[in-house]
Amino acid sequence: MKLLVTGGAGYVGGVVAAQLLDAGHEVVVLDDLSTGHADAVPEGARLVRGTLREAAFGVLDGAGFDAVLHFAARSLVGESVEKPGLYWDKNLGESLALLDAMRRAGVNRIVFSSTAATYGEPESTPILETDPTRPTNPYGASKLAIDTALAEYARLHGLGGVSLRYFNVAGALLEGGRVQGERHTVETHLIPNVLKVALGEREKVMVFGEDYPTPDGTCVRDYIHVVDLGVAHQLALEACEPGVHQIFNLGNGNGFSVREVIEVCREVTGHAIPAEPHPRRSGDPAVLVASSDKIRSALGWKPERDLRAMVADAWAFAQRAR
Ligand code: UFG
């Protein structure tokens, strides 16, 4: 297939673009490089630099694309609280421009990177796709609005859309000569920050909150390996059905606390990794764990890589990327 990958210069988009190339697809990446890196675009893909508003139609029109994988987004919860307008504009506004460009160009399949943040603070766990969506920040709200737009475009314009609601993505792609992983300029995620301590780039890891109603008092999250996530995208692409919008959670279905994650990082790196308690980070739900039963039964997806593999691959990448 000929595929447009928006945000293919970012962590997840770059990894999935590489997997799609290795599966034999033709890939064009559209990215404004506002948070991504040109050298994260995998070899074999063509990079078009531009925003979705500026460039989507020019790239798609008459070019014979079969589908779009839409990763491009602003994705920092804290930043979204400080600058809600930016998130509505970049996430929702540019996604609508993309959807209209797809319509005009006659491209009617899309796989979209949605998020666990669309659910907000869950009432029960594990989270099902049918659970209430009450996002607690503009990031989650803007992603939920895009899910809603996809449902409307499916119903009214015959779009075939799949939203994948990612939980906590980790790990790296280190297969087939590829070396791709997480390289955020502003790093807020737990695993890369813990590994920075093992690399000697930071003295201690900050543990945000030890008084949550969880077994060890720290937040529990559901971690998924980026390579398993990429496999889900390939299945989702095949499952796009005209006139239908489907939503699938994407997690491993297991919860690990912040303390457990740090412990696995100690075991993998052999480094003591000192940890220091800090106050809660605002907006962090205590427990976020996905039910992935729907994608397992509907698409036959199954995660193959556990937390230890995620940390080992992230560690191998972090050491090479220094
Ligand atoms: N944490 C620390 N120290 C750190 C970094 C994180 O203790 O240095 C804690 C956080 O407080 C949280 C857990 O580790 O309890 C995981 O934090 P991450 O930032 O790695 O991930 P989040 O669960 O906050 O974020 C993920 C996605 C977001 C999405 C969100 C939904 O990365 O895109 O889930 O709530 F919005």
Characterize the structure shown.
The protein is an alpha/beta fold and 322 residues long. 39% of the residues lie in helices and 18% in strands. It is built from 10 helices and 14 strands. The protein has helices at 11-22, 52-60, 77-82, 84-105, 138-157, 190-198, 226-239, 258-269, 293-299, 307-321; strands at residues 2-6, 26-31, 46-49, 67-70, 109-115, 160-166, 168-170, 205-208, 220-221, 223-225, 245-250, 256-257, 275-278, 287-288. Helix 1 links the parallel strand 1 and strand 2. Helix 4 (84-105) packs parallel to helix 5 (138-157). The longest helix is centred in the N-terminal third of the chain and has 22 residues, at 84-105. It is globular and about 55 Å long. The mean pLDDT is 97. The chain binds uridine-5'-diphosphate-4-deoxy-4-fluoro-alpha-D-galactose. Uridine-5'-diphosphate-4-deoxy-4-fluoro-alpha-D-galactose (UFG) binds at residues 75, 77, 115-117, 139, 168, 188-190, 193, 205-208, 219, 221, 258, 281, 284, 288. The site of uridine-5'-diphosphate-4-deoxy-4-fluoro-alpha-D-galactose has 21 residues, from helix 6 and strand 8. Residues 4-251 form the NAD-dependent epimerase/dehydratase domain.
